[in-house]
Each structure stands twice: as C-alpha cells, then as structure tokens.
Design a protein that fits this description.
Layout: E1 2-3, H1 6-12, E2 18-31, E3 36-43, E4 46-53, H2 59-67, E5 73-82, E6 90-101, H3 114-119, H4 121-124, H5 128-150, E7 154-155, E8 161-162, E9 174-177, E10 180-184, H6 189-199, E11 201-209, E12 222-231, H7 235-263, H8 268-275, E13 281-283, H9 284-295, H10 307-314, E14 321-324, E15 337-338, E16 341-345, E17 347-352, E18 357-364, H11 369-378, H12 387-391, E19 400-406, H13 407-415
Parallel strand pairs: 1-2, 4-6, 7-11, 13-14
Antiparallel strand pairs: 2-3, 2-5, 3-4, 5-6, 8-10, 9-10, 11-12, 12-19, 14-17, 15-16, 17-18, 18-19
Helix pairs in contact: 5-7, 5-13, 7-8
Amino acid sequence: MEIINISDILLEKLEGKQITIRGWVYRHRLGGGGSMVFAVLRDATGIMQATVKKEKTDEQSFKHASDAYVESSVIASGTVKKDDRAPGGYEIAVEKFETVHRGEPFPVAKDLSEEFLLDIRHLWIRSQKLTRIMKIRSTLIQAIHEFFQKRGYTLFDPPLLTPNACEGKMTLFEVKYFDSKMYLSQSWQLYAEAAIFALGKIYDVAPTFRAEKSKTAKHLAEFWMAEMEAAWMELDELVQIAKDETKFLVERVLEKHEEDLKFLGRDVAKLNSQISKPFPTITYTEALKMLKEKEGMDVKWGEDLHATEEEKLMKHFDTPIVITNYPIEIMAFYKPHDPKDPKTALCFDMLAPEGYGEIVGGSQRSLDVEDIVKRIEKEGGSIKDYAWYLDLRKYGSVPHSGYGVGVERVLRWICGLDNIKDTIAFPRTMSRSYP
C-alpha cells in the first residue's frame, strides 16, 4: 500500500483508499471488551485515528496494536474511512499493524510542572503544542528571507566569535580562543556596517548571545535575531521598513497557520486586527507625557522604559507602535545625536500590543568618530579593539542604518504565548542549560 502523510489523507479526503502511514502512537486505548484497539497515530504532519479490530487483522498485528505504549513507533496499513468522531473526520480501518519499536512507558502526562517538562524537553518537543510552534517558527524565518530577498537585499553571514562588545560589556559571554579570549556575538551589527560598503543592502538570521541575568518571560541567553543594514538609509525609511516587515511576517503566518494558532488558543481575529491598521510612531518624550497623563506614572526624563512602563503605555494602543528618539545618554556608542534634538538619538524600538513589549530595535549609525571614541571609552571599551570599526568612518563613509528583530519575541506575540521559552526548541537562560 502507498505510504502517505497524515495531513495528505485529511487534505485529499482519500475515503476508501488503501494506504500505509508511519509514525508514533499519540493516544491508545482498548475497547469492545478487548476486541478492539483505538490508536491515535501521529507523524510530522498531523494526527489520525487507527481502529484495529481483532477479527479484521492477523494475530500478530492485533498483539502489536494492543501492546503498543504511547510514543511507540509503528507502521499501520488499511482503508481510509469517514468518521466524524475521529480527529480530522477520518480514520484508518487497520488490516496490518507493525510495531517498529515498542517504547517504554512515556514520562509525559497531564499536569506536569514547567520545570519537569523543560528537563525532558527532548521528549516534550514531540507535543502537539511545541510541534505547531516550531512549524510556525519555520514559516516565520522563511518569511524573513522572502521579505528581504524580494527587496533586493543580500544575505550576509557574520562571525559569531568577536573580539569586542556591541551592546555593552556586562552581557558578553567570554569564550577561550586558543591562547586568548573572544566573545559570543551580541549582534552582527558592527560587521554588517563593514559589509554594506560592498553589498549595499544586507540581512541575516543568526543566533545571538546575551549574558543577561534576567528571569523574565521574555529573556533568553541564546536567541535568534533577524537583522538588516543598508547604506544611504536614514531613520524614517528604516522605521517604515520595520513596519512593513512586521506586517508581512504576521500575514504569512496567518496565511499558513490559522488552525495552528487557534489550537494554541490565539485570538486570530485580534491578531488580524492588530496588523490591519497603520502602526503609530511617537517619540520617547511623547511616551513619557502619555504615561503621566493617562497612567499617573511620573517617569524621569532620561530613564529607560522598562517592562512596566511599556505594558502601561501599550494599554492605549491596539497595534504595534514605534518609539523614536530615546535619550542619547542611555544609548549605545553607535547611535548618533539627532541634529534637531541633540539630547536624543536617531533610534527606535517597536513594541507589540497585549504587553509583549519590544520586538524590534534599530537606529541610524553615527558617523562622528570623536563622539564614538568618547562613548566607547565611557563604556570601558578599548579603542584598540574597535580600530577596524573606526576605519569604516575614514574611507568613504555614508549615512546608513539598521535594525534587529527578535525572532522569539515576535513568535511569542504572534502565537500568544505566556513564556518565550516555548518559542525555541531548547531554551537557554541563566538557570537552564540542560538538555
């Protein structure tokens, strides 16, 4: 019999066709006083009920079906029949059932703690929840490539081992590098700034590392960033591209994964609504004014916006918003002063609605070598380590800009997940490095 994916059976509605499926036992129970086995089987594409009747199969097939534990790997052959009670509305009336490997009693059950499920993540990843999230993640990353390829950007891969910090020395992961030391990349940005003089418009999707001692629901020590950089680009154009990309990514996921999102409990109508309208742009100063007037929060000008302030602010928006012109004093060395308001930087963050916080961050890049040097030294960096970066301002420098999208943060918002740890197969945090 022809081997078919479960999703193809349900999609094509192959009623009456004899087929074979290969997969794992998802659920299992005996019925009919021991004369029947109801086994819901799963493969990488979906789940389907297999009904095994003692009088319709040989002795060995029925024994294999009866004795199979959950997550045993099996091959089942039979006829596709319509059954409204079965998952997807169809089942297989089994004629032959073979156990490839009879698994041991599976340790995953209902009502287990989050920590235990993280300890057995190598098994929990088989769950319908994580399987669907990983498929959505795959579509999200493919959509990032599609967005930039259509706009003529070149994929550029930077090193992951670097000699210097991009986002502050306090969050660097130090790595022994032969007889010296290096650091895991906090961002591709500095190398991207070198590449745009050759390639013009570039992007990448790559792992990123931040040694942040944070245990919040939106922080990981190892995560993926989708970053872009472009020559001849200033802040206004940069912000518009970030808005366009965000809408495009959500649209692609909705197009392909509406049922998966519903399974995860996501309000699809709300998500659709959030991207159907223009995303507002406000300044940091306007955000503080809004917090004071609408929430009674008196945030001192010059302080960063933390999760609490962001959540309060986003109560007044039902779409993502962009905040520009944060105080220059709290920004990284590569972000330039805004000539119209020198105490602020030409930078932006994008915040997602429903309390999901920052999902995109970027800026125009400073061309002022003296200012860059002064700020690197203020942050405790060695100018020697940044000599190559400063060279970029000496040989045909041009205005340029870039931003980074936190893949896991966007995925968390799209899927409506409580914790960012569910957006990546094997999460790494300050308290989680196993398995």
